[in-house]
Amino acid sequence: MTSDPLLALRPWESPEVTSWGRLPMNAVDRRPGALPLDGDWRFQLLSAPDAPVGGDWGSSYVPGVWTMQGTDDLPQYTNVRMPFPDFPPGSPDANPTGVYEREVDVPTDWAGRRIVLQVGAAESVLLVHVDGKPAGLSKDSHLAAEFDLTDLVRPGERSVLRLTVVKWSDASHIEDQDQWWHGGITRSVLLYATEPLHLADVTVRARQNGELRIDCQVRDTRGALPAGWYVSGELEDRLLTQDREFDRVNIEDDRVSDFLGEARLHATVPEVRTWNAETPELYDLTVRLHHSDGTVADTSYHRVGFRDVEIVGRDLLVNGERVYIRGVNRHDFHPLTGRAVSYEDMRADLVLLKRFGFNAIRTSHYPNDPTLYDLADELGFYVVDEADIESHDHAHEIADDPRYLNAFVDRVSRMVLRDKNHPSIIIWSLGNESDYGANHDAAAGWVRRHDPTRPLQYEGAAKLDWAATDDASDIACPMYAPLEDCVAHALSGRQTKPLIQCEYSHAMGNSNGTLADHWAAIESTPGLQGGFIWEFWDHGILQRVSDGRPVGRAGAGLYDNGVAAPGHRWAYGGDFGETIHDGAFIADGVVFPDRTPKPSLYEHREIAAPVRIEAFKHEGIVLGNHQHFRGLDWLSGTWELALADGRTLTAPAALPDLRPGETAAVPLPFEVPRDGGEVWLTLRVTVAEEQPWAPAGTEVCVPQIRLRGPAERADTVVDRPVEVDGEGLLIHPLLTVAPTLSLWRAPTDNDELGGMALRWRTWGLDSLVRKVVSVREDGGRVTVVAEYAGTTGVVRHRQVLTPVEGGVRIDEEAELPAEFDDVARVGSVFETVPGLDLLDWFGQGPWESYPDRGAGAPVGHHSLPVDELFTPYLRPQESGGRHGVRRFTLSAPDATGLAVELDAPRQVSVTRHRAADLTAVTHHDELVPRAGCVVHLDAAHRGLGTASCGPDTFPEYRIAAGVHHWSWTLRVL
Ligand code: GAL
Ligand code: MG
Prior knowledge:
Blueprint: H1 5-8, E1 19-20, E2 35-36, E3 39-46, E4 58-62, E5 64-65, E6 76-78, E7 97-105, E8 114-123, E9 125-130, E10 133-139, E11 145-148, E12 158-166, E13 179-181, E14 184-194, E15 197-206, E16 211-220, E17 230-235, E18 238-241, E19 261-268, E20 283-290, E21 296-304, E22 309-312, E23 315-318, E24 321-322, E25 325-329, H2 343-355, E26 360-362, H3 370-379, E27 382-386, H4 395-399, H5 405-419, E28 425-429, H6 438-450, E29 456-457, H7 459-462, H8 483-491, E30 499-504, H9 515-524, E31 528-533, E32 541-544, E33 559-560, E34 563-564, E35 568-571, H10 600-607, E36 611-617, E37 620-625, E38 635-643, E39 648-653, E40 663-666, E41 679-687, E42 699-701, E43 704-708, E44 735-742, H11 749-753, H12 756-763, E45 769-778, E46 781-789, E47 794-804, E48 807-816, E49 825-832, E50 838-844, E51 859-865, E52 881-891, E53 897-911, H13 915-920, E54 934-941, E55 962-972
Parallel strand pairs: 25-26, 25-31, 26-27, 27-28, 28-29, 30-31
Antiparallel strand pairs: 1-10, 2-14, 3-4, 3-7, 5-14, 6-13, 7-12, 8-11, 8-14, 9-10, 9-12, 15-16, 16-19, 17-18, 17-20, 20-21, 22-23, 23-24, 32-35, 33-34, 36-37, 37-40, 38-39, 38-41, 41-42, 41-43, 44-49, 45-46, 46-47, 47-48, 48-55, 49-54, 50-51, 50-52, 52-53, 53-54, 53-55
Helix pairs in contact: 2-3, 5-6
Residues 79-80, 178, 390, 392, 433 line the site of magnesium ion.
């Protein structure tokens, strides 16, 4: 038994206990004067919260997670499943508990002041002791906790501060988000002081019409408020004085016994510069609390954005505009520090998102560091701020469990109290994947009363009926809903609220197929307004392969361009020896663990293009401004004309002065040649004036239009035999493996989790056995018929090899039996001699692209070293494809090599890996590149879709059984 009253409460198994001694949450922001307590703390890890603290201390860095700092308690990844079997509110007896201790020298000049400790975030139960005396406890791993230490410390003296962090608790059951489990203190710790008379809260409401209202709450820790206090404000250089008609308690002498002061400041700013995500105009506001003699007792700093959010009918409006929500779900993540993220990292995340066309963030699935919202205000994002509630594994039981009622309301209300002044936050979210119950309605009721200025969403409520008007969600915010269902709902006449998917387009591995189709539907269907891609990060933790340990903070520089340095890898579920885990499902972001963009981001950037080519008409190229609030003056452009003969012509583009939604024709600065094959016009759009998120010159989008179609292709047949071996396989000096038929790709995560890969394996497509049926020579031409036998069917394949000027033309035909319906690819695969290390191609590029993910890759002449074509997905899979390739050369530095011309735009990949190589390993670092190139050219290649979690690709991107034809010419350079 313990004598410590905090431990005696056994708060880790008491959901009713959400805090003790914790100060109310508020939005007061006092910047200067705090004493930062970040850095190395004395540390020991106990086996359980009530185990005795020993004398053996190590150290741990704060903010940080101990699971990444050398303890034996390592990160563990589970999605839905709890990592322990105990039912809520229970937790396991073996319960790692971190004890953090350090000395604090309390400044002498804090005498007489109110002294407050702030712990930015600790997971999952925080107990605070000062000099052995209990100071308070708190739960909610993603919100700060403040404690009044005035009576526990003495200015001018040294105190010992102990923070005990219990990893597993009743709260873990409502923090069952799909991410790594860690333990530690993930946000900064600090101590600050105020006068006893202080601002207890400040609520700022700033509207599009310039109306500003600031409500202040004032308290005095000594009890009654002193007479004569008042507040003032300063908005930029404008002074704001207190609304006298609102005064309740501060002036009248007979009210001095009141303990809660309320005061209001009010102003109307003429010609206000409004806030929106495109032009995030902010005004500096300082709120001051004064003593009766005018001296300042307390100050709070704010940045105010004037904007309105409302739902009208089924449209979500920002400043009256139906803005598209081009969102992403973002977790707190860093490959070296787990869940502790610095200001620089948060800024880098947001800057990258801006550069790739995102304008919205859902803080999946918990409130983020306050700094993130400051950055969102400043850089311009619409934010769905989500409360820290996910009870996925035991969702139904908890949603109505009265023992958790307090926790639900506590978490939602504290988030709103903290974040309400951020213009970027346009929607509150009650949490994620926690079913729907009375506990949600209780929290929703609190929010609707406290902040009627913003809509509320909760997927778990809305999913029952997208049109319901009496639930806890003002928005229909499904996850991974089939596009046709969304469109059907919008067309049904039943729609009552905006439809904005809280999660869609699952970015696991090589994914995000059909994103452009989604956006085509969203932009053409009133009632659909966008969504949030799942998700930003691949949560791969940098791990030393030798001992399986996380590298931790020392790992800076041990990765580059999405790839871990030799001897290291990006760990995913199971890599730390966990037996309960969910594998690579944690690697499902649009960026690699080092924030290197995946190719799908270029697709997104293009889909979000602020300026687009609408048409090519006789009067010129019609351009349109697709922004909601901005002109085009911040952009500049360059025209590029790609001609089939290999030339690319460029000319500067003068962008017209267009308001949002307007279009105008601009003259084409080129003479389009009368003949000579395809002509593609691209407008390379860059930032003209430096933006807070991009220097001038940063590429923003590359809209494109085809001006002329391809010419007829003609080969001259020559009289020279084509050489084949006894198996009918082409003999060629530059090929080490002759072209054969391929129906298989290394399964993507979507292929695996969507069940396609299993089907393909069952059919034997990964191990087709080729048997030559006949080899017929006719003049120089050779016709080879072969059968490729799978386990359940046989494909008949015919190759006609015709000698043509400079090389050989290969006409192919494959007949897929009816049961091979919907295969990965139908095409040829061959391998080259080493040394052909440069790929030049005419087709879509330079980014990796696939039939259902190509919008960001314009047709043109592209060139890349072969090693740069491959995308290093964490779990190796089909990678490196280029869509719409018309022809390519693979060459050595001396310009020798081979040239391939295709009969039509085809999917091509050139990598160092066979599909079997990719399939055989589980992590990128295990791949051994081949010296030569593995070349695939496909008559048809299946789309990527998003079936690892959500809809598969559309039927038009799947491959039907039956006869497929393709033809290509192979020449020596
Ligand atoms: C959703 C969930 C996310 C994540 C995703 C799959 O259901 O809200 O947290 O698990 O699926 O990656
Ligand atoms: Mg979940």
